[in-house]
C-alpha cells in the first residue's frame, strides 16, 4: 500500500508476514526494547549477545525475538539481559538514523517533491493511457454515437418541411439550438463521471508522485475535447439538411 501508514498489533506472526513490515516495535516487560526497521534485525540481535540468536540461525525471526525478549529470573542474568536489551534499543535508533539519512540524501538527489518525468512527457503518457482505455471501452462510444444519431433524426423530423418565411426561419434557429443543446447534454453526461470514476487511481498515483495533478487534468481535457468534436459532426450532417438549414 503506497502513500499510507498501516499500524498493526500482532503476536508471533509467520516470518513471511513479519518481513512485510517496514518498521517494528518490540516490547519487553511493557517497555520498548526495539524500534526500527525489520531489515538487519537478526544481525542486531546476534550482535547484542543473545545466546538464542547465536545458536538459532535457522529459527524464524519472530520466534527468535520471543525467546530473546523473555526476561530471565532475578539475578545476574537479569542485569545482563537488560544490558542486551539496551544495546538492542540503541541499535534500532542507529538503524533509524541511517535510514533517515539515506532517504534525505535520495530526496536531495531527485529534488523536493518533483515528479519523475517532465510535465509534457507526463501529459503524453496519461493521454496515451486514456486513449487506450477509451479504445477498449467500445460500448460507451457506440451508445454515445447511437444517442447522437437518434437525437438528430428526432429533431430533424420535428422541424422538417418548415415554410420559407420569418416564422419558419425562427423555428429553424430553434431547431439548430436543440441540436446544439442535445450534444451539450450528452457530452456533459459523459464528462461528469470522468473524475469521480478515476478518483482512487488519481489519488494513489499523485501521492506516489507519478505525475503532477495539472498533467492529469490537461490530458483529460485534451482527449475529451478531441472526442467530443466527433459526435457533433454526425449530428450536423444528419440534422442540418432535415431541418432545412441548407435551403
SSE layout and pairing:
Blueprint: H1 15-18, E1 23-28, E2 31-37, H2 41-47, H3 51-55, H4 61-68, H5 76-110, H6 119-136, H7 138-158, H8 166-192, H9 194-197, H10 199-207, H11 213-228, H12 230-243
Antiparallel strand pairs: 1-2
Task: Describe the overall structure.
By secondary structure, this protein is mainly alpha-helical. Helix content is 68%, strand content 5%. Strands 1-2 form a two-stranded antiparallel sheet. A hairpin with a 2-residue loop joins β1 and β2. α7 packs antiparallel against α8. It starts with 14 loop residues before the first helix and ends with a helix.
Keywords:
247 residues; mainly alpha; two-stranded antiparallel sheet; 12 helices; 68% helix
Give the total of beta strands: 2
Low-confidence stretches: none
Strand content: 5-15%
What is the helix fraction of residues, given as a range? 55-70%
| Major sheet attributes | 2 strands, antiparallel
Tertiary shape: rod-shaped
- Secondary structure category: mainly alpha
Q: Mean of residue pLDDT?
A: 76
**Spatial order of the strands in the main sheet?**
1-2
Listing every helix as H and every strand as E from the N terminus to the C terminus, the arrangement reads HEEHHHHHHHHHHH
Number of helices: 12
Ends apart, CA distance between termini: 63 Å
Q: Determine Rg (CA atoms, Å).
A: 33 Å
Amino acid at each position: 500500500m503506497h502513500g499510507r501508514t498501516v499500524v498493526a498489533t500482532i503476536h508471533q506472526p509467520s516470518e513471511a508476514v513479519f518481513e512485510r513490515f517496514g518498521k517494528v516495535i518490540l516490547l519487553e516487560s511493557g517497555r520498548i526494547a526495539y524500534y526500527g526497521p525489520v531489515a538487519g534485525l537478526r544481525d542486531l540481535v546476534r550482535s547484542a549477545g543473545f545466546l538464542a540468536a547465536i545458536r538459532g540461525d535457522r529459527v524464524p525471526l519472530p520466534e527468535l525475538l520471543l525467546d530473546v525478549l523473555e526476561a530471565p529470573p532475578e539475578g545476574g542474568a537479569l542485569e545482563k539481559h537488560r544490558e542486551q536489551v539496551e544495546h538492542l534499543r540503541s541499535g534500532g535508533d542507529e538503524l533509524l538514523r541511517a535510514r533517515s539519512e539515506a532517504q534525505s540524501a535520495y530526496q536531495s538527489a531527485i529534488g523536493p517533491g518533483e515528479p519523475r518525468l517532465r510535465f509534457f512527457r507526463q501529459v503524453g503518457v496519461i493521454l496515451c493511457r486514456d486513449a487506450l482505455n477509451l479504445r477498449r471501452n467500445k460500448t460507451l462510444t457506440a451508445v454515445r454515437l447511437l444517442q447522437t444519431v437518434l437525437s438528430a433524426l428526432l429533431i430533424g423530423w420535428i422541424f422538417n418541411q418548415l415554410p420559407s418565411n420569418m416564422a419558419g426561419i425562427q423555428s429553424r434557429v430553434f431547431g439548430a439550438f436543440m441540436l446544439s443543446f442535445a450534444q451539450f447534454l450528452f457530452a456533459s453526461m459523459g464528462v461528469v463521471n470522468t473524475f469521480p470514476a478515476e478518483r482512487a487511481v488519481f489519488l494513489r498515483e499523485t501521492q506516489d508522485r507519478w505525475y503532477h495533478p495539472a498533467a492529469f487534468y490537461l490530458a483529460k481535457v485534451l482527449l475529451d475535447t478531441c472526442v467530443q468534436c466527433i459526435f457533433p459532426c454526425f449530428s450536423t450532417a444528419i440534422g442540418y439538411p432535415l431541418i432545412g438549414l441548407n435551403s
